[in-house]
Known about the structure:
Blueprint: H1 2-36, H2 39-70, H3 74-106, H4 114-139, H5 142-172, H6 177-209
Helix pairs in contact: 1-2, 1-3, 1-4, 2-3, 3-6, 4-5, 4-6, 5-6
Amino acid sequence: MRDRFNEQLSELHNKLIEMGALIERAISRATNTLEKNDVAEAEALIAGDDLIDDMEKEIEAQCLKLLLVQQPVARDLGFVSTALKMITDMERIGDHAADISALSINLSNHNQIKTMAYIKQMASATMKMVTTSIDSFVKKDLELAHSVIANDDIVDNLFMTVKKDLIALVHEDADNGEMAFDLFQIAKYYERIGDHAVNIAEWVIFSITGMHKNKQVL
């Protein structure tokens, strides 16, 4: 009985890694669509978001089955509970990647501006945070998890820089208002992705130490 339960936990672990790979790819593709003004790729990414949503539902069902049928001991309960929390943040990251792609379609006819350089830095920083948060889960590495939390300030500071630049852009020419709003929304989505990566890292810490900082991102 225990051997079968261990197999199910291993399957759950592998599915979480697979979902992590999907969201990493989604962020990468969203950033590429933004940089290259690739409307077709953006539309494909938006359509593909259902795959991440379906995986969330599949993992959630597996977790609930383990909790109801197997009645795991405390250590295993912590892992399953962590999985349930992580997939919520992963699914939201996938949504935000799709949101970025949708906005990139609106911007496809606009020229690149200085603010884009900071948004690209945000994209790179959040991608690193998400990848590291998933790695911390795979490797059960507290140091990696804490590094994700520490790097959140980088993304937050870049977001404030983007916000100030966009306000100045609109002041210079009110006709830039619509473009500035779309860029602000994109920056905000990257900032939220960073926050969800922090959530994942905090749940990894919980799964290892049993301690969690009570923080959620909508």
